[in-house]
DNA sequence: GGGATAACCTGATAGC
DNA sequence: TGCTATCAGGTTATCC
């Protein structure tokens, strides 16, 4: 899926079309994505004003004037596409409906926001804004890696005694929220830690190294507009370009980019996911 | 309880 | 051209 930087990029792209604006019409074209949509979702959205757009982990949260919050998750292939806004000017020129356009929001002002998701691993739900933190998908999430609650003490405590590989531990959203397969690979490379190492064997010096690297990789990726592989687009349909900065992800058999290292990037599978790393300089 | 695996679903790509 | 196998940015349910 879009990981944290992609979701943040999408959120920012949605702001001009949605923030402060009323949803004039909501069309829901199927009963479910990963889970059934909440009852009467179209009716509950229609007429609501979007007070603000927040992000928690890989979720976008739209706070509505009705006292409810719309939760949006893009899954692996979800896209939020905006049409009808160009350079701050609104128009009513929208592309023809496409396959897998599941939810369409026609916004006050003329913009249209379309949720398109081929694989349907995405989700949408409505909840009382006051009870957001208790939502089953949000309640158990770890801290935001770019927030104040994520620090060495927290990470060290989450890794301590764990017999799972560090790769899996960083992917576990209970430990830290928002990292996905790409950015964990990139983080471990920059930290020169092998993805195969057990979490409990990562030293405190390495934890100290990991925290700022996690922040750095995510911040750089957000600045680049995220990474575009197969499905991901920014809300305006543009590609992100952080993928050009990948040092190990999807670079199997390439020379290791670490200066002075003569290693070759390897691929292995851990808990069903590809891990890319340099066996020579990641220890 | 912790950790690994299968499952959800479609599309793109590689190989024959 | 066309078939088959494999893989994909995530998360949950299930099994050992």
Portion in helices: 10-25%
Radius of gyration: 20 Å
| Unreliable residue stretches | none
Number of domains: 2
Task: Provide the structure class.
Answer: alpha+beta
Instruction: Provide mean pLDDT, rounded.
Output: 93
Beta content comes to 15-25%
CATH superfamily of the largest domain: MutM-like, N-terminal
Distance between the termini: 28 Å
Helix-strand pattern: HEHEEEEEEEEEHHHHEE
Number of strands: 12
Q: What is the strand arrangement across the widest sheet?
A: 1-8-9-5
**CATH domain fold name of the largest domain:** N-terminal domain of MutM-like DNA repair proteins
Number of helices: 6
Name of the CATH architecture of the largest domain: Alpha-Beta Barrel
Largest sheet: 4 strands, antiparallel
Active site: 2 (schiff-base intermediate with dna), 3 (proton donor), 58 (proton donor), 273 (proton donor)
GO molecular function: 8-oxo-7,8-dihydroguanine DNA N-glycosylase activity; class I DNA-(apurinic or apyrimidinic site) endonuclease activity; damaged DNA binding; zinc ion binding
EC number: 3.2.2.23, 4.2.99.18
Domain Formamidopyrimidine-DNA glycosylase catalytic: 2-122
In a few lines, what is going on in this structure?
InterPro entries: DNA_glyclase_Znf_dom_DNA_BS (IPR015887), FPG_cat (IPR012319), FPG_Glyclase (IPR020629), FPG_N (IPR035937), H2TH_FPG (IPR015886), Ribosomal_uS13-like_H2TH (IPR010979), Znf_DNA_glyclase/AP_lyase (IPR000214), Znf_FPG/IleRS (IPR010663). With 283 residues, the protein is of the alpha+beta class. It has helices at 4-18, 41-45, 152-159, 166-171, 181-190, 204-223, and strands at 23-28, 50-56, 59-64, 68-73, 78-83, 85-86, 89-90, 101-107, 112-117, 123-128, 266-270, 273-277.
